[in-house]
Amino acid sequence: MNCDNKEPHTSHLNYGSGIATQCPGVAAVGPDEGPGMDAIRVERLRQVTMEGFDADHDDTHVNGELAALASAYIVYDLLAGLAPNVTKMVPDGFDFKPRNHQYNLERAGALIAAEIERLMRMKQ
């Protein structure tokens, strides 16, 4: 592990104690990062438990579809009034149900987490 980089990144994380710790000089990352992370966790849990979008499901999307859908939720509010252009970003077969800005960000965050986890599983 290279600790020259003082910016937090996953190669610095050690989850052995149940709390992610990092190399000396890098701020510790704990399981509770605040209400924003909590909202993303709740949305991800909803996706898994209510929609059935678990790891097995996510692993079928190997062409960046999860990240593309997350992007659509992020830019939806930024391109207000241009919704037809945003819907072109939505991968085929995916539902796009934007609501308010906060909810769209929560959904995007959960989709990004799902994509990161999928990529990490591919490396194993």
Largest sheet: none
Coarse structural class: mainly alpha
Element-level helix/strand string = HHHHH
Distance between the termini: 18 Å
Q: Could you estimate the helical fraction of the residues in percent? A: 40-55%
**Radius of gyration over alpha carbons?**
16 Å
Q: Low-confidence segments, ≥5 residues, pLDDT <50?
A: 6-22
Total domain units: 2
Q: Average pLDDT across residues?
A: 80
Q: DSSP helix count?
A: 5
Secondary structure: number of strands: 0
Strand content: under 5%
Principal-axes geometry comes out as: globular
What does this structure look like?
There is one protein chain. With 124 residues, the protein is mostly helical. It folds into two domains: 1-31, no CATH class; 33-123, no CATH class. Helix content is 51%, strand content 0%. The chain has five helices and no strands. The protein has helices at residues 35-51, 55-58, 65-78, 83-87, 101-123. Helix 1 crosses helix 5 (101-123). The protein is globular, with a radius of gyration of 16 Å. Residues 6-22 have low confidence and may be disordered.
Topology at a glance:
Layout: H1 35-51, H2 55-58, H3 65-78, H4 83-87, H5 101-123
Helix pairs in contact: 1-5, 3-5
Q: What are the main properties of this structure?
A:
0% strand
